[in-house]
């Protein structure tokens, strides 16, 4: 099961399709006495994809939740387009590993819901939902209920729901983590295609090194207790990517680099 949380609608202005800028300034996240991550400084440009990897429990989800304004930082700040996040920011959508689709709603109602709660009229919301359903390849399943769908199809529905609000920033938390390897690969390339047609800024948390390299312009490797950014790796691959990039020597070299950093991180824990 996959959870999506879409946060308020903000249609991009004309000529402003590339997405939001994000800045983390000295971000420290704490739960009670426990400091999970400390002094994280990152700047993510409009339309950039930053992949975030690191050992289990190092604070990747916590970081995304801070960017989404769901939990406040203990110290430091998140800025989206220069504005300090101190609540639910406009134009941000989150996609989690577990969708949390409403089981009693059809695919089109699930997708339209994100718009309906933001005051979009029923017809407009349904029209937009159907556009998105086509985009994610679910035409013909508009009236299906989640239990009638495969995991991959539920994932597509969740993606459509996130995209329905025309986010300027997509926060992806292991979005394909619950899928079998084959479905995961199909959806990765579908998302890549969709993203290339509608580029927005993306923070992409994943346990898959291949996925991190495939999507990222850069990869932030988190490590330590509390965690910090151990390394920021530039992904020097062509921006337009398809399956062929996974055979490029640069792809393999970057994958090896990330792999060795994560192995070091895991062995140091
Ligand atoms: N609401 C919370 N209250 C207390 N502790 C929390 C809370 N949320 C997360 N934590 C703790 O913070 C740490 C970081 O959790 P987080 O889920 O951000 O890690 P992660 O890197 O995303 O892990 P994984 O890769 O396993 O998903 C963990 O030790 C977790 O137990």
Relevant terms:
7-stranded mixed β-sheet; P-loop_NTPase; globular; 269 residues; ABC transporter ATP-binding protein; disordered N terminus; ABC_transporter-like_ATP-bd; 25% strand; ATP hydrolysis activity; alpha/beta
Question: What report would you give on this structure?
Answer:
This protein has helices at 60-67, 107-116, 122-135, 151-164, 181-197, 209-215, 249-267, and strands at 4-7, 22-31, 34-44, 49-53, 75-80, 83-84, 92-96, 169-173, 201-205, 218-223, 228-234. Residues 1-16 have low confidence and may be disordered. The protein contains 7 helices and 11 strands. 41% of the residues are buried. The chain has 2 domains: 38-91 and 168-268, Rossmann fold (3-Layer(aba) Sandwich), CATH 3.40.50; 100-166. With 269 residues, it is α/β, with parallel strands linked by helices. The chain starts with a strand and ends with a helix. Helix 2 packs parallel to helix 4 and helix 3 packs across helix 4. The protein is globular and about 50 Å long. The strands form 2 sheets. The protein has a 7-stranded mixed sheet, sandwiched between helices. InterPro entries: AAA+_ATPase, ABC_transporter-like_ATP-bd, ABC_transporter_ATP-bind, P-loop_NTPase. It holds the Pfam family ABC_tran. Keywords: ATP-binding, Nucleotide-binding, Transport. GO terms for molecular function: ATP binding; ATP hydrolysis activity. This is ABC transporter ATP-binding protein.
């Amino acid at each position: 099961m996959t959870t999506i949380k879409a946060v308020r609608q903000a249609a991009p202005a004309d000529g402003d399709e590339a997405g939001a800028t994000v800045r983390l300034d000295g971000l420290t996240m704490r739960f009670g006495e426990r400091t999970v991550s400390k002094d994280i400084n990152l700047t993510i440009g409009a339309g950039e994809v930053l992949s975030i990897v690191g050992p289990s429990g190092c604070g990747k989800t916590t970081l995304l939740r801070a960017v989404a304004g769901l939990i406040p930082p203990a110290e430091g700040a998140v800025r989206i387009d220069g504005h300090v996040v101190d609540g639910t920011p406009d134009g941000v959508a989150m996609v989690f590993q577990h969708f949390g689709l409403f089981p009693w709603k059809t695919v089109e109602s699930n997708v339209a819901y994100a718009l309906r709660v933001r005051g979009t009229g029923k017809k407009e919301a349904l029209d937009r939902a159907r556009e998105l359903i086509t985009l994610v390849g679910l035409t013909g399943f508009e009236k299906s209920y989640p239990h009638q769908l495969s995991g991959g199809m539920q994932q597509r529905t969740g993606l459509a729901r996130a995209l329905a609000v025309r986010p300027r920033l997509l926060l992806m938390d292991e979005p394909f983590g619950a899928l079998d390897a084959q479905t995961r690969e199909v959806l990765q390339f579908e998302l890549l295609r969709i993203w290339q047609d509608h580029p927005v800024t993306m923070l992409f948390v994943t346990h898959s090194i291949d996925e991190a390299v495939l999507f990222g312009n850069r990869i932030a490797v988190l490590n330590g207790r509390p965690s910090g950014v151990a390394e920021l790796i530039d992904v020097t691959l062509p921006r337009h990517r398809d399956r062929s990039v996974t055979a490029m020597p640069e792809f393999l070299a970057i994958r090896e680099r990330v792999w060795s950093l994560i192995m070091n991180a895991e062995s140091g824990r």
